[in-house]
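fyi for ur records
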Amino acid sequence: MKNFSTVVTRAAAAALVACAMASPAQAAPACTFRPNAPDQHVVVKGDTLWDISGTFLQNPWCWPQVWGMNRDEIRNPHWIYPGQVIYFDRSRGRLSLTRPGSADGRGEPPLTKLSPQLRSESLERDAVQSIPAGMIEPYLTQPLVVEADALAGAPRIVASQEGRVYLGTGDRVYVKGELQGGRTFQVFRPGGPLRDPQTGKVLAHEAAYLGTVTLDRAAAPGVDAHTFRVAETRQEMGVGDLLVPMPPTPVRNYMPHAPAQPVDARVMSIHAGVSYAGQSQVVTVNRGSVDGLDVGSVLQLYHLGKTVPDPASKGVLGFGKRTIKLPDEQYGSLFIFRVFNKVSYGLIMQVRAPVEVGDVAKSPE
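which gave:
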């Protein structure tokens, strides 16, 4: 176990519990603790916020509520590190980094503001992550889904060094299009369209990630193409392939939480084109930031309720019978980890049945 600064640990503890003091309202009725929840949990390397939350709570997405976090604190979380102890304060219905009753006699630590300069990149890298990073890494950094509006103005490769068909690291390629100040780009090839299961509208395209290129020389006056160098190749790239700017460093320590507004989405696609998905696989849904989703949102998965004949109604040879719509069946959770304007990536969590395209994914009830 690493020997972290006592100042950082105490400040983080104070800030976390100060959040709880600032938000005295009790958690929503759905946010209940497990009957067998432990009094404390020692954080170890390999723990995730989802796992730790599930140790104490019936629903892991209730994590921010039992800490009393507001929306800004969810987006910019206070880190938790291996070696720290999380305590269950049963009398207050809260989680804390301070043992209940151990501070000033009221079970509350002294108010201490967490100073931004105490946080460092090395500490943040060691912080407990929300979900296992290895399962979602390619989806954080590679354009496996490209929204329809990103295709229209995307720069494209128009020629290669000496007309080469196979390009390798260091080769030149020539690109036409507006770079918008960017210097490093990912190269992709559009695939099949991803249609909204509800409207049939094309929201995005699947994309084959080919590699990265960096700007060598911008187009001079009277020249139509910019000169790029191939920095990395994953698959063959060539004339006609498109460029997207390198995404910013992804945030990995986001808090699982319910969306800020009601979301009613549908599973739009399953990676690799399979018909069914299970635990720890990635799907896309037909909702994004414009619909109220943000990174860390948790949705509940439902199979659409079937429509069956009403056994009490009469018909001729089975025809003309009334039908009954059965309720949707909730069977799992979906953790949203990357959000675009109209679509999002989600990691399947805790499912009791296979996930299918068209399944409902909506805000927790």
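Helices lie at 6-22, 49-56, 63-67, 71-75, 121-126, 137-141, 148-152. thats all i got for now
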